[in-house]
Automatic annotation (TrEMBL):
<feature type="domain" description="Resolvase/invertase-type recombinase catalytic">
    <location>
        <begin position="7"/>
        <end position="151"/>
    </location>
</feature>
<keyword id="KW-0229">DNA integration</keyword>
<dbReference type="InterPro" id="IPR006118">
    <property type="entry name" value="Recombinase_CS"/>
</dbReference>
<dbReference type="Pfam" id="PF00239">
    <property type="entry name" value="Resolvase"/>
</dbReference>
<dbReference type="InterPro" id="IPR006119">
    <property type="entry name" value="Resolv_N"/>
</dbReference>
<keyword id="KW-0238">DNA-binding</keyword>
<dbReference type="InterPro" id="IPR050639">
    <property type="entry name" value="SSR_resolvase"/>
</dbReference>
<dbReference type="InterPro" id="IPR036162">
    <property type="entry name" value="Resolvase-like_N_sf"/>
</dbReference>
<keyword id="KW-0233">DNA recombination</keyword>
<protein>
    <submittedName>
        <fullName>Recombinase family protein</fullName>
    </submittedName>
</protein>
<feature type="region of interest" description="Disordered">
    <location>
        <begin position="200"/>
        <end position="225"/>
    </location>
</feature>
<feature type="active site" description="O-(5'-phospho-DNA)-serine intermediate">
    <location>
        <position position="15"/>
    </location>
</feature>
Amino acid sequence: MASKPERAAFYLRVSTDGQTTENQRHALTEIAERRGWKVVAEYEDAGISGAKGRDKRPGFDKMLKDAVRRRFDVLMVWAVDRLGRSSATALTALDDLHSAGVDVFVERQALDTTSPYGKAMFGIAAVFAELERGLIRDRIIAGLAHVKKHGPRPNKKPIGRPSVSADKEAAIRERLALGHGILRVAREVGVGSSVVQRVKAAASETRQNADAPEAALRNQRSESE
């Protein structure tokens, strides 16, 4: 393979719908321009966890298939864990790409597998990415177990979605009552659309609970008539 690949491809991934791949794209584009690489393809999996297999990541699957077809010379990714959250997944992808004659450039870990040293460092970074994921999972499990057994820890933020202030909740309810849409209310009050949706759902549930006794009384009357 040439020491300076000319055809580059991006693989972009974020784990949730609330995230965007635009920052990854912007950073990789600047690097490709500096190196004189021509970006010929982009592959993206938005809102898909790196822990999922190839069959659940269509962008990842297509990228590997195009690599075999030699449609690009180097694959550029923002970080090792974009390829996979386990070292096995990331290293398997690396082997598949190298078998196809494609190198990998990883910006965050400053890895360039055009050299043996870069390939070795890639493997080390993939191991640490898996270790980090395991540590995070263990901390979450331990925290939930502690709360279940002892209750919330003092001076700790509650687990779950943050609550909205009473003033903002009142403002949300008022605007919803006027028939304003969720996006408009979120913009006017200065909160996320998910907050407005939660307030709306809670208000709907409250109304249903309030109407339940009256509905039951009406049913009882109709049955006795």
